[in-house]
Amino acid sequence: MLQSCVSTSQKITIRALEPAAVDRAALTKKLSVVPFEHDRVGLSDKIEANLANQKFDNKNYFTMINRKDFDKILAEQKIQNSGLVELSKAVEVGNLLGAEAIISGSVGRPSSSDMYYFETRLGCADKKCKELIPYQVRCTKRIISLSSEIRMADVSKGDIIYADTMDKSLEYSHCSDDYNALPSTEMAAQKLANSMADSFTRKLLPHYRYFEVVLLEKPDIKYNDREEKLLEVSLEYIKQDRLDKAEQFLIDLIDSTNQKSYVPFYNLGVIKEAKGAYILAQKYYKKADELMIKPVDEISEAYIRIESLIEKHNQAKEQLSK
User: I need a surface site. Which of 16, 101, 176, 216 has the fewest CB within 10 A?
Assistant: First the structure.
């Protein structure tokens, strides 16, 4: 969950639960992904696989309607599938499938454009290579692009929950003296489709975000030798991921300094934040904030950050519970 980082300041890496960007989508759990219109890159299959593989606490987040059931419904109802662009058709199929929402869309044709240029190299002027001379090699820059439109429709309400238009591109370079060849349009388009599927899926469900928080390593008031040692040892235990042990020394430091030093309060807050005990972290950050005589960036940032983190965590938990 956390690790120390070798730098001028000791840090902890924290994992925080973030809510889905589209709250309504996250609360819609039974889905069907229909084949997209003009889908030469298998984008709909990639999105379906992503959604099917999303788990929390070893349980599937979404319930996916089997693609065979979808094809059977289309055949029985004599409905033509061309990405189900029309909302009414998407809702009709979703009702027949028993889905809460249906994801449909269309994919543009992958495009590729090349631009040529020259780069300067240095080479030996003779066999003994006593002198270097410049020469030029021909190079190619290839840009491969892909666009798509993706929609998530609410079956019961008959409206759009979320729609996204995506345009992604990759850039490659190759010179005549390189060993690696430029990728084909088809190969690059598959990478772009994977990226689109990841981007779309990520907006529909809660996920974890990782970030680093700096610890305070120097006393803010005059410490005696024992108090300096308490701070030093607590930081060492944090570096070893022994947070419970570090807490004991920080609490001892708080008592020893008569609760007048903000450093142990702040570092305790960081530990609680790393453990996911956000209310306790907020309590310690608030105490550190009260003890500041002049602004300390780390404490001010933590005081603001923890409020947002608590709100987002609660929202994500609500999404997961439904």
Answer: 176
- Quote the CA–CA distance of 67 and 93 in Å, as a whole number: 12
How many C-beta atoms surround the C-beta of residue 157 within 10 A? 11
Q: What is the pTM of this model?
A: 0.72
As a whole number of angstroms, the distance between CA 253 and CA 218 comes to 13
Give CA separation, 5 vs 2, 39, 96, 211, in Å: 10, 44, 54, 12
Distance CA 244, CA 154 (A): 47
How far apart CA 293 and CA 206 sit, in angstroms, is 39
Predicted confidence (pLDDT) per residue in 55-73, tens digit: 877 888 888 887 666 666 6
Backbone angles phi, psi at 53, to 5 degrees: -95, 0
| Residue 198: alpha-carbon gap to chain centroid | 9
Query: Using an 8 Å Cβ cutoff, are 162 and 104 in contact?
Result: no
Which residues partner with 151 through β-bridges?
104, 163
